[in-house]
Amino acid sequence: MSLPALKRRLAYLAEEAGRSGTRIFAVGGCVRDWLLGRDTVDIDLAVEGDPGPLARTALRLWGGGQEAHERFGTACLKLEDGLRLDFARTRAESYERPAALPKVRPAGIEDDLRRRDFTVNAMARPLTPMGLGELLDPFGGKADLEARRLRALHPRSFEDDPTRLFRAARYAARFGLAPDKETRSLIASAAERGLAGLLSRERVRQELLRTLEEEEASPAMALLKEWGLLGAFHPDFLWLPSTDMDSDPLLRLGVCALVMGARGEEFIRSLKLERALARDILLVLTMVQERKSPCKPLPALTRELLETHLKGLPETALEPLMLGGEDLKRLGLKPGREFSRLLGEAAEAQWRGEFETKIQALVWVKDALKKQSGRG
Ligand code: ATP
């Protein structure tokens, strides 16, 4: 949504906040993107107080659904026109040990900006009845953005939260920012100390997926490689720039697993993905190894991955096997080991394109039986 249109919307929220004496700010990524002249549909709103009433007002005014309601007063709204409003209470954070989840407590906007990752993400603009008020930029984020500089807010930043290493690669790549000298040395020291290894696999997975969601993941992956951090995804993780040819992040993930060969399965299992997703990708790995047509129709993701990865496959290789147990029974065979072996061979033959129709499949099986009885 364009900035002027959005400002008109946000003015309503400012009025509502004003009535209850709370301040509300647009904060983080959207403020950065506006400075870069980019439109954004993801607006993070920080409220000095309970964001609940404001979120309800937004829903009433603009319709849509509430995506999540988490702890500590956050609400995420997806409005009917695609705009996402993320409401959160302004807070301060403290970390008890490296990579632990932070302890949070309510605080003002200044503390809320102080807990953020990079100066370019630590800016806010108050919502006012006119739309947006003046930039709050306590760490010089605007100047850094203009100088194309990525700067962590404090020396313990990556130790507190090593996911920021991956975030650094994404922002540097996406916006063409270079880490300043201090941040570069913090990244190097965090990589050397293996801090990313302290993160849970769930958090690593999230960073991997978010990197794969970039329009092009290669520039961020190249930085992670340069910084010695690709191994956090898996010790054998390998990034081929051609993986970006698919724009779907899940297809990209599948390709990553495929290029890892025998280690692909371990990689996928280690990520603790949603079950159906892991199953679809693991099926690709099995099929590439076994080279047999499947018994059942393939899930869309599996099929698409196989089609892109294995160029020149016969057209019907990925179709369900054209012969079934019933066909063999009609030819007088009884279920048993021989029966299963024949079906397995048929699946391999279909994969190689030796038959492409049901009739051809029946001819193939009769030939196979003839050859067998000839041998016997
Ligand atoms: P993107 O365009 O990649 O979504 P974003 O800046 O909107 O970028 P989010 O992950 O949505 O990124 O986070 C919103 C804001 O919250 C960030 O701009 C940053 O200020 C803050 N933030 C998010 N994650 C962290 C973190 N791990 N450490 C510190 N601050 C963070």
Q: How would you explain this protein's 3D organization?
A:
It is a single chain. The protein is built from 17 helices and 11 strands. It is α+β, with helices and mostly antiparallel strands and 376 residues long. Among the domains are: 1-147, Beta Polymerase, domain 2, CATH 3.30.460.10; 321-376. The strands form 3 sheets. The chain has a 7-stranded mixed sheet. It has a two-stranded antiparallel sheet with strand order 6-7. β8 and β9 (131-132) form a beta hairpin. The protein starts with a helix and ends with a helix.
Count the beta strands: 11
Query: Which CATH class of one domain is shown?
Result: Alpha Beta
Oligomer: single chain
Strand order of the largest sheet: 3-4-5-2-1-8-9
**Overall geometric form:** elongated
List keywords for this structure.
376 residues; alpha+beta; Beta Polymerase, domain 2; 7-stranded mixed beta sheet; two-stranded antiparallel ribbon; 17 helices; 48% helix; binds adenosine-5'-triphosphate
Task: Describe the protein's topology.
Layout (H helix, E strand, L loop, with lengths): L2 H17 L4 E4 L1 H7 L6 E6 L4 H11 L1 E7 L3 E6 L4 E6 L1 E4 L8 E4 L2 H6 L9 E5 L2 E2 L8 H6 L2 E2 L6 H4 L2 H13 L2 E2 L1 H12 L8 H12 L5 H9 L22 H11 L4 H7 L4 H16 L9 H10 L15 H6 L6 H16 L5 H18 L1
Parallel strand pairs: 2-5, 10-11
Antiparallel strand pairs: 1-2, 1-8, 3-4, 4-5, 6-7, 8-9
Helix pairs in contact: 7-9, 7-10, 11-12, 11-14, 12-13, 13-14
